[in-house]
Amino acid sequence: MGPVDWIAVVMAALLAVVVGMVWYGPMFRFIQPFVKDEPKERSHFVMAFVVMLIGATMLGHNYARIGAETMAAKPWLYFMQSGGIALFFIIPVLWMTYYRFGSGQRLRLVACGYYLVAYLVMGTVFWALA
Fold first, then answer.
1. How far apart are CA 26 and CA 29, in angstroms?
2. Looking at residue 1, what is its pLDDT?
3. Domain range summary for the chain, segments of one domain joined by +
4. What is the DSSP string of 19-67?
C-alpha cells in the first residue's frame, strides 16, 4: 500500500463542497429542502465538508491500496472507484431514505445527481494531483 495523498483528500473534499454550493445554489435553488423548517446556517457547510472529507479519505485510502503504478497505468480507475461508490452505495441509500420520508422524485434526482457529480469531481482531483 502506498501513502495516502492527504493534500488531494482535503482538496477533493473542498471542491465537492464548492460543487454543492453551486448545485444547490444557482442550479437547483427551486428544489424544496428535505426538512422544510430547518434554517440554513453556515454550520451546514462545515457538516458538508466533514461528510465529504470522510468520503475523500476513503477514496484516498482506496487509491493508495491499489498503488500509484497501477493507477498511473489505468487512470480510468479513479473514475470507476469514485463513480462506483456514488452509484452503488451512496445513491441507493439516499434514494431509499428520501423515498421513505415522502420526498418527491425531483428532489431525489437532484440529491442523487449531486453525489454522483461530487464523487466524480473528487476522483478527478485525485487523478489531477497524481
1. 6
2. 76
3. 6-26+44-129
4. HHHHIIIIITTTSPPSSTTPPP-THHHHHHHHHHHHHHHHHHHHHHHH-
